[in-house]
Amino acid sequence: MSKHEFEMQExxxxxxxxxxAMDKExxxxxxxxxxxxxxxxxxxxxxxxxxxxxxxxxxxPGPLTVTMxxxxxxxxxxxxxxxxxxxxxxxxxxxxxxxxxxxMEEKGYFKHRIGLEVPYYYLGPYDYIKLKDLLxxxxxxxxxxxxxxxxxxKSPAEIAYIRKASDIADAAFQTGLDTLAEGKxxxxxxxxxxxxxxxxxxxxxxxxxxxxxxxxIVYPHGFPTERKLQQGDDxxxxxxxCYKRYHCTVGRQLCLGKARPRVKEVYKxxxxxxxxxIAEMKPGVPMVKPHExxxxxxxxxxxxxxxxxxxxxxxxxxxxxxxxxxxHLFGDSKYILEPxxxxxxxxxxxxxxxxxxxxxIDDVLITETxxxxxxxxxxDLIEL
Length: 384
Hints:
This protein is α+β, with helices and mostly antiparallel strands.
């Protein structure tokens, strides 16, 4: 996303909500590290997350300072709402934490009550240790999810981008159906699907396409390979449309020919688990409840030991390596469903010893009354 992709009022609302949360937490400053947090607050799709970057987000409104590697300074200048943009490194080696120190000394931030965003990715152990040492005499609180949780319920403008991503993903799946044939490689089919994704406006996805077939069907996250498709192959494809960094994922099960009876049997169980999970999804419902509904279907079929993946998780703006958000459909989830959340539904079954792997993936939008499946692609087992 960039500052040009949303109305200014939307950015102002986001920043105001973060400042309200900071006030409740007793914070004067957040060191924002995650690219999805930085870009949600100030715009820009700059590929600066590969190395250290930091937005100094203050509780008091005013010009915002951000630092990132030198090569991205112009893009931040033209595409973000930050006014004070400091590049580091580039021409010669430079420790970015030294730049953080200089900014904090200049701005008087060492006296502030500081929130440190510690995301799953994007903050390497070296930089984390250096930051902790830099801030050792400050009032510091780690806030890994303060901004993340505020992003979970999407605005109408964000939902429109996610719907666009879903439409692109559906078109790519049709391309895959048109391309799949005996003798084609997984990579050849994936290439045509990627061609459609990009031609229709998709960004590069935060996570690579999963494409498995034949004996590889039990690899939940297998890359497409040079393996040639054969008659009788089970096939599973998972990928995402990504529009202005907003993702919508889809995953479908296919067979080149007639599916094995065991595959059909397991598919029926997984489909029922997905359907009951979605039926439970309404505003105000704890996210553990739909998870338990899906889990029970699979367990009642005697397959719980083969449920090797989460039931689902939030989907939103994302950057490599993940499009996921923190609100998982897990047994210990503390999250409550809200209108505007977008959640992936994908309870799988992988029976390795039988070479049977089944997963159906749909993203649903939580509405005022329930859950809307975004993809229009058939959810049936597809036999070609």
